[in-house]
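Hello again, I could really use a second opinion on something today. I've been puzzling over a protein and I'd love to understand its fold better. I'm sending you its amino acid sequence along with the backbone structure tokens. It would help a lot if you went through both lines with me. I've dropped the whole record in just underneath, so have a look.
***
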Amino acid sequence: MFANLFTAITINPCQSNPCRNGFCRARGLSYQCLCKKGYTGRNCDQDIDECNLRISRCPGICINTPGSYQCSCEKGRILLPDGLTCIDPCMSYRDIKDTTRSIKYSGYTLSLCDYEIIKQNFTWYRFNGGKNSQMMLTRQVMMNQCGTNAPGWLVTPHPTVRQGVINGTVCFSLRSNFCRWKNTVQIKNCGSYYVYQLPPPPGCHLRYCSDRYEIKECASNPCVKGSCIEGLNGYKCKCLPGITGSHCDVGQCINNQCSHGVCIANENGYTCKCNEGYSGRYCQEDYCSDNKCLNGTCIANKDGYTCKCKEGYYGKHCQLDNCFKNPCKNGRCIPVKWGYKCNCSDGYYGGLCQFGVCEPNECHNNGTCEPLHRNYYKCHCPSGFYGSHCEYRVCQVNHCQSNGTCEPTRGNYYRCRCKSGFYGSHCEFRVCQVHHCQNNGTCEPTLGNYYRCRCKSGFYGSHCENRVCQVNHCQNNGICQPTRGNYYRCRCQDGFYGNHCEK
């Protein structure tokens, strides 16, 4: 007799690789996704917008990218190789004070290299020649000028201040009217001077040329209370009546009575120009003396004051709480500097915790959805179903052989009910495929997975293991003789008789 065997099926919820940008970890019949940096969501399929959440380290403009972000700078500023720092080239440059770069210096005798530029490599420079500043030449330079054999000049015009940083082209030549080598440089107009980002020249005796140009010194209005007059040796200020000083900034202000401000002389005496946050004739009144900012810091300015609110507060006097309307439907509201954020209860997600992970129920075939930590969930499948969403039937694919019937059992297991004459966990064995009938006995299947042995004449037993006359039951030296089936008869010696020659 043989008993049915039960087979357990192991389901791997990570087999379909549901985590798009992360790693899958099996959790029973469900799974959990461990997302790579820059992604979120149950299946790591949602990009985190670092720019919108203000968690980037960009000092200027933030550009969101899949799984990350990039920094860019405002017009007129450049991004350093670290990708996080913006600088103004007008405030960060190296001076090149070299008179030999002028076209009046011959290259026959000097033939100088740009060693400093080659050494620094792509640093910003300013050609500086003292009182009259210098700029890169924008006209063709003949060979053997600027102290070298192959001088370089700018073939593109200089930018205006509004254009910010632009690209320009520099030509180097060993012959007139011929551009043998080219270099791309960056240029910025800083108002009264230019700065250049200069890559190393293509060869040793190739050199950048520069020359002097006139600076309009009165353009910056240096005379406070007067008019500016250009001269050969600089400029002079013609002051208003009652005003003196090289910049027309001295008058009735010798005994300055402006407590928190600057005294400005005029024909009628003086006036006080108050510092930010102060008012009154003598700038003696402080706007922030009685702090009106309930949940913040008072900052004085030219219009009076403003309140710099603590995180989570807003309003003119920081009197309003970002969370006072409780916008988080299923979570806790946390004030932050840009407004508020919602800390969702388990089983909810979304900017306002408005979505339930089990709403709608993603578990098929009457599976039960159970919320887990944060925005994860798992499905509890009814008997006969399995999968991360209970989407598979246990007997959907019949693994029972020989026309056996697949029957779901408890959980996600099944068993095979075999046809008569077959047995095994998947009904893969015939009852008489391997039999134990001896002495040429015939194996015959019976009901269920049982069998019986039909014995040859002269043998008997459940497996035909016994010979009929193997044990002689004939007495008085009678001879046992097999007959049809598993019977025998006794041939008795003379003088004896009976079934067993016992008489």
Notes: The two ends are 44 Å apart (CA to CA). Residues 360 and 457 are 74 Å apart (CA to CA).
